[in-house]
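Hi both,

Apologies for the delay on this - the queue was longer than expected. I finally got the flavin-adenine dinucleotide-bound model through. Below you'll find the protein sequence and the ligand SMILES exactly as submitted, and right after that the structure tokens for the full complex including the ligand.
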Amino acid sequence: MRVNLINYTHEPEKTVAAAARLCYSEINAEDIMKDLDPEKQEHFLKKLMDLGHLSPAEHVSFTFSIEGVSRALSHQLVRHRIASYSQKSQRYVNEDGFEYITPPSIGRNSEALEVYEQAMQMIQGAYEKLLKVVPKEDARFILPNACETKLVATFNTRSLYNFFQHRCCLRAQWEIRMLASRMLQEVRKVAPILFEKAGPICETDGYCPEGTMSCGRIEKIKKTKN
Ligand SMILES: Cc1cc2nc3c(=O)[nH]c(=O)nc-3n(C[C@H](O)[C@H](O)[C@H](O)COP(=O)(O)OP(=O)(O)OC[C@H]3O[C@@H](n4cnc5c(N)ncnc54)[C@H](O)[C@@H]3O)c2cc1C
């Protein structure tokens, strides 16, 4: 999996702080930007994030290049509707000899790995044969969830918070959890205060929505907070 932050709003933390301060100020955002020193900015941002006043965070967005992930992952990713996506097309791009993702549970089990690799080879052979007689858009019907894909995804800060709450959770599927954790590492490099408290919902909100399927981590979090 390769995850890179390829673009983001210029001065992300200053922009969020200025948008938030505007709500309580008589001067305009441009003048607020000029007046914001790093200390005031940090203080204001921390207060804002603690209060959960997240609408000013919507003014700042982050664009990621994501490669070496499965179609099983991308299907889950695009369920996050408050984001924009561009994905390698299987209608236009030839998937002849496609790369595929191998789940760790299969990779470390020689019997499972043999079955898996044989199935992938069989699908690759069938895809090649189909390509000779039908258009790519129809040959792709045979491609597996394991097929490697590439995307560009753009989220605003608030939507990213929601994404991390859902997908950094230990109950999330391993591949999208790995993606979420890489994306969080990337945004923390450029906006450390904004994302200081981002993470699974048990950490951000102190409760677990998973009920009987909870991993149990919330109990430890509650104990350390008491
Ligand atoms: C552990 C786990 C298991 C899951 N299992 C399943 C499953 O079995 N089946 C399944 O289908 N999905 C499953 N999902 C996906 C999940 O239900 C969400 O679709 C996904 O996490 C996107 O979350 P979201 O809607 O909050 O994000 P976004 O679409 O980015 O939305 C962000 C927020 O905007 C608001 N919003 C967005 N659209 C609307 C709208 N139309 N109306 C009102 N408010 C809106 C909501 O407050 C929402 O939380 C699972 C997710 C996780 C993390």
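Main takeaway for now: The two ends are 38 Å apart (CA to CA).

I'll put the files on the shared drive as well.

H.
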